[in-house]
Amino acid sequence: MLTLPIVQPEAVAPAKPRKPDWLRVKLPVGREYANVRRLVDEHKLHTICESGNCPNMGECWGAGTATFMILGNICTRSCSFCAVATGRPTEYDTDEPRRVAEAIQLMGVKHAVITSVNRDELKDRGASIWHETVVRIKQLSPETTIETLIPDVKANWEALDLMIAGGQEVVSHNVETVGSLYRLVRPQAKYDRSLEQIRRTKAAGKRTKSGIMLGLGETPEEMYQAMDDLVANGLDILTLGQYLQPTKRHLEVAEFIHPDLFAHYREEGLRRGLKYVESGPLVRSSYHAERHVNVPI
């Protein structure tokens, strides 16, 4: 009698979710886009548009606007979602505030967004550069409104006070995800510490803003809790967008969130007390940022 060997079926890895049609974006083209890129290159500036692989770069740069990243392009953190390079920064350019301000003046930017990498190795977390950058922009372009998207200061509240004291209209700090996913997504950050940073910013009389990426494995209940936490800590404006894996080394997308659910989260956020919610698959922190300066404090 012929005995056939028992063949175990090969384990089949779960299929990765396919990128849906609503996440398709146009390649950046056009005269205005080319002009912004030329100015950024000439002034040796870093933009989060490029470093963060933002899907809206074509739209925003095509409108003659950009989000500038100060304090270099190497971050001391190693967040598992972010495309910005991680390492030991060597760049500390005290002339950067002047160059950023002059570039914004040349571009005729009406609303500027400034962000930065984390500089945990600096005693003041880079706060002096932050403050001078905002002051210089206001000096050269007094009609330009400013949003500063600031990093986690690791509870250095003196540094926070200096960062937000330059005269900017909006101060943003992204919590990025729900509390249960912090160890996975932001291993060197703390959810409660980011909430406290927002609370202290609001207590200083600032217009507060934050952002969350969806599709990392969060549940609707966790999203509702995060919204409640943010409202309880004084948040005014919230942006919600789809997480997109920047490289194979980064976290994979757990789920592509349907636009209808983004619309639902927007309504829920407003119902729970947020003053403004920008919610959609391609929304990023700086998307339609010029609209946020009109949100009442």
Automatic annotation (TrEMBL):
What are the record keywords, sorted?
4Fe-4S, Cytoplasm, Iron, Iron-sulfur, Metal-binding, S-adenosyl-L-methionine, Transferase
Return any one Pfam family short name. LIAS_N
Q: Which GO terms describe its molecular function?
A: lipoate synthase activity
| Classification via SUPFAM superfamilies | Radical SAM enzymes (SSF102114)
Show the catalytic activity.
[[Fe-S] cluster scaffold protein carrying a second [4Fe-4S](2+) cluster] + N(6)-octanoyl-L-lysyl-[protein] + 2 oxidized [2Fe-2S]-[ferredoxin] + 2 S-adenosyl-L-methionine + 4 H(+) = [[Fe-S] cluster scaffold protein] + N(6)-[(R)-dihydrolipoyl]-L-lysyl-[protein] + 4 Fe(3+) + 2 hydrogen sulfide + 2 5'-deoxyadenosine + 2 L-methionine + 2 reduced [2Fe-2S]-[ferredoxin]
Q: In which pathway does it act?
A: Protein modification; protein lipoylation via endogenous pathway; protein N(6)-(lipoyl)lysine from octanoyl-[acyl-carrier-protein]: step 2/2
Signal sequence annotation: none
Task: Determine if Iron-sulfur is one of this entry's keywords.
Answer: yes
Q: What is its EC number?
A: 2.8.1.8
Task: Answer yes or no on keyword Heme.
Answer: no
The free-text note explaining how the cofactor binds reads: Binds 2 [4Fe-4S] clusters per subunit. One cluster is coordinated with 3 cysteines and an exchangeable S-adenosyl-L-methionine.
Query: InterPro entries given for it?
Result: Aldolase_TIM (IPR013785), Elp3/MiaA/NifB-like_rSAM (IPR006638), LIAS_N (IPR031691), Lipoyl_synth (IPR003698), rSAM (IPR007197), rSAM_sf (IPR058240)
Q: Where in the cell is it found?
A: Cytoplasm
- Give the cofactors, semicolon-separated: [4Fe-4S] cluster
Query: Where, in this chain's numbering, is [4Fe-4S] cluster 2 bound?
Result: C75, C79, C82
- Radical SAM core domain location, by residue? 61-275
Family the entry assigns: Belongs to the radical SAM superfamily. Lipoyl synthase family.
Q: Which HAMAP family match?
A: Lipoyl_synth (MF_00206)
The molecule here is called Lipoyl synthase
Query: Source species, please?
Result: Hymenobacter guriensis
Q: What is the lineage of its organism?
A: Bacteria, Pseudomonadati, Bacteroidota, Cytophagia, Cytophagales
State the gene name recorded for this protein: lipA
